[in-house]
Design a protein that fits this description.
Bound molecules: pantoate
Radius of gyration: 19 Å
Number of domains: 2
CATH topology of the largest domain: Rossmann fold
Shape: globular
CATH architecture of the largest domain: 3-Layer(aba) Sandwich
């Protein structure tokens, strides 16, 4: 695997490469990331697989975990080599932001101010800005993201479409532990007791999804009743939920009827760790 830490060095390699599939990450890689790397290899028809590792300050708010975000570069490189990744772009902060970033991508507020955006002000502006910058440097043909960050995927897919970037954006299913907890770098913050409790978030999402799938509940009042019951169940077990809500998959707006494709999404704090997850509601 070739490791590039400067934009100039990566660009020199880019000029020699053909098609490229990119998996952008912030490192601390787990099996969810590795599944994206392997899918990049399979789906992209012989493209070179490029991973990026960059902990992007712009997407962390005041008081969030930028400083303590786990940085595990050596272990990450071993995993990427084992997964057969061809190139790693791993710039320093000075390389990506040699001066404070003054030009930003401002995502559509109708999408970016909802859910995660309501609790993490400016988060998607930071994500969209760094991803556009990574896209400009790497110039991928395909970019892969996990569905765990469902809203992030929609923001980026819309950015690519609206800015006419020649990139295919692919979302992959969330990879889960044996007890169905969604894999996340932030799981490492959980104590043993919290880790045992953590799968409840997914179970509550599944309970809501399953009730809706059965089709007995099809109006907004029913959705709200289910959401309130699931939130109460989380709170009863010591969680501090930010939201647990049924939304339209296409734009994450509240649904008007259950015939349209829906997703139920949640974010909740367990101790000091904030976890997010979602489940697409399959129609019968
Ligand atoms: O999902 C992530 O790890 C990050 O938000 C991303 C897409 C790499 C941008 O920093």
């Amino acid at each position: 695997m070739h490791i590039h830490t400067t934009i100039a060095d990566f660009r020199a390699a880019r000029a020699r490469a053909g098609r490229i599939a990119l998996v952008p990450t912030m490192g601390n890689l787990h099996d969810g990331h590795i599944a994206l790397m392997r899918a990049a290899r399979q789906l992209s028809g012989g493209a070179a697989v490029v991973a990026s590792i960059f902990v992007n300050r712009l997407q962390f708010g005041q008081g969030e975990d930028f400083e303590k975000y786990p940085r595990t570069f050596e272990a990450d490189c071993e995993k990427l080599i084992a997964a057969g990744v061809d190139h790693l772009f791993a710039p320093s902060e000075a390389e990506m932001y040699p001066q404070p970033q003054r030009y930003h991508v401002e995502p559509d507020q109708k999408l970016a101010s909802l859910l995660e955006g309501a609790f993490r002000s400016g988060h998607f502006r930071g994500v969209a800005t760094v991803v556009l910058k990574l896209f400009n440097i790497v110039q991928p043909d395909v970019a892969l993201f996990g569905k765990k960050d469902y809203q992030q995927f929609l923001v980026l897919k819309n950015m690519v479409r609206e800015l006419a970037l020649p990139i295919e954006v692919v979302a992959l299913e969330t990879v889960r532990a044996d007890d169905w907890l969604a894999l996340s770098s932030r799981n490492s913050y959980l104590s043993a007791t919290e880790r045992a409790e953590a799968p409840r978030l997914y179970r509550q999402l599944c309970a809501v999804a399953e009730t809706l799938r059965k089709g007995a509940h099809d109006n907004v009042r029913d959705f709200v009743r289910l959401e309130i019951a699931a939130l109460a169940e989380l709170e009863r077990h010591g969680w501090k939920p930010d939201y647990l809500t049924v939304r339209r998959r296409v734009d994450l707006q509240p649904p008007e009827q259950s015939e349209e494709p829906l997703v139920v999404l949640a974010a909740a704090r367990l101790g000091t760790t904030r976890l997010i997850d979602n489940v697409e509601i399959l129609s019968q």
